[in-house]
Amino acid sequence: MPSTLGFALLGLLARRPSTGYELSRRMDRPVGFFWTAKHSQIYPELKRLESAGLTEAELIDGPGPRPTKRYSLTERGMRELTAWVSADAEPQQVRDADILKVWSIWVVDPGAAAALVHRMREAHLARLHTYEADLADVETDHACRDPRTPLFASRATLVAGVRSRRAALQWCDWLLGELGGWPVPATAALVAG
Amino acid sequence: MPSTLGFALLGLLARRPSTGYELSRRMDRPVGFFWTAKHSQIYPELKRLESAGLTEAELIDGPGPRPTKRYSLTERGMRELTAWVSADAEPQQVRDADILKVWSIWVVDPGAAAALVHRMREAHLARLHTYEADLADVETDHACRDPRTPLFASRATLVAGVRSRRAALQWCDWLLGELGGWPVPATAALVAG
DNA sequence: TCTTCCATGTAACGCGTTACATGATTTT
DNA sequence: AAAATCATGTAACGCGTTACATGGAAGA
Asked: Which of A84, A133, A160, B77 has a CB 3.0–4.6 Å from the CB of B73, allowing a cystine?
């Protein structure tokens, strides 16, 4: 069975055939918002998928010193993809370095803590704007309402992004409120006075 | 500079000194909700932190065949931790296999898609209950309101968990609504009729 | 007696990032 | 002429998981 990256590539190829380079470009967005890979990981994985019979390659004209291959899904590849989508997923554990940092936020004074949360808030806000712009773009096509279209699925992931970032923003605001009501250390108090 | 796991361990030791085994138990919750590690990763990392002068170990009585060491933070360790908390973090990229799966959800029929989203919804709900229970426990102690206490930071991370899971639940419900309005394939239609 | 828990480690492997390597075409 | 872009790969390294190894104490 392919790795998670393998299924991401199968998902890209199910939408349309591509070369390795195109796949590494297409990984950027919107799927790259939730799963990323560099080209150095993509090329070997494509070879593995091909030798597993899930994709097939056709040699085409290309610029570089090496031959260019256009990959597409085989029937077996499509079956593997649908099976993976339908299958029960074991619950994944979260890894969030920001929240880990907040878990140790008590070691700095509330002023420095608030500064940290402010920076996190701005990062979430910037990401929210990106998601919203891409979502607006997707929604100009009425096909995005039909669950059988790739565009519907892209829209669903972007909506997930928008909602999670809005929740993160609200959490930052809540946290700033909690930090704000407390006496600040000497330097900050002097500035305030 | 330590790895992210290193800072997680420094954060644990800043709260109280512990042996390697205790640290691997304490990684479970609440910090483990957002960063996990197995004991096989913790023991070598503790050695690295010690040789970097960020922690120090004291030999104590223990059961196993090997000597037991109780680790605690040095002054330098505490300084590294506060510097890391205060420092600007480079934006981390998200990795979410669930959303990746939804990004390919268009390859299955809307009935199977809805079943998948239902299972995701239940997983989020179960996690939400865990977070809420731990949060209720933390909030019995009034120290959780003071930003200079470890309990405040634990509370902040648990609130983050609650809010993100609630957002995920609402997204699942939205997605089920989008999937629901569409004609289902033969077998499901027969059951409905 | 068998299993579980306590307790500390090492080894092998897979996934992911950074860096190295090559060379044509297009842009500055 | 130099730099960026197109384009495809390999190598080295770090982080994380699974499996292996050891042995005492407590409970079923």
From this structure: B77
Query: Over 60: is that where the pLDDT of B191 sits?
Result: no
Closest CA–CA distance from residue B91 to any residue of chain A (Å): 7
Asked if B35 lies within 8 A of A96 by C-beta distance, the reply is yes
Beta-carbon separation of B84 and A100 below 8 A: no
Helical ranges in A87-180 per DSSP H: 97-103, 110-138, 150-180
- Read off the DSSP letter of residue B94: P
Q: Please tell me whether the overall predicted TM-score, pTM, comes out greater than 0.85 for this model.
A: yes
B46: nearest Cα among B22, B15, B79 = B22
Burial B55-74 (b: 16+ CB within 10 A, else e): bbbeeeeeeeeeeebbbebb
For chain C, which bases have at least one atom within 7 A of a protein Cβ?
6-12, 14-20, 22-25
Of B91, B150, B163, the CB nearest to A171: B163
CB A179 within 8 A of CB A53: no
Residue with tokens 């029960």: A88
The number of angstroms, rounded, from the C-alpha of B115 to the middle of its chain's C-alpha atoms is 26
pLDDT the model gives residue A182: 64
Task: Answer whether residue B180 shows pLDDT above 80.
Answer: yes
Contact B187, B125 (CB under 8 A): no
Segment A27-55 mean pLDDT: 96
Q: Mean pLDDT in chain B? A: 93
Share of chain A above pLDDT 90, in %: 85
Nucleotide nearest the Cα atom of A64 (by C1'): D7
Considering only alpha carbons, which residue of chain A is nearest residue B110? A147
List the single residue in B34, B153, B161 with the smallest CB-CB distance to A105: B153
In the chain, the amino acid numbered A68 is T
The tens digit of pLDDT for each residue in B82-122 reads 999 999 988 899 999 999 999 999 999 999 999 999 999 99
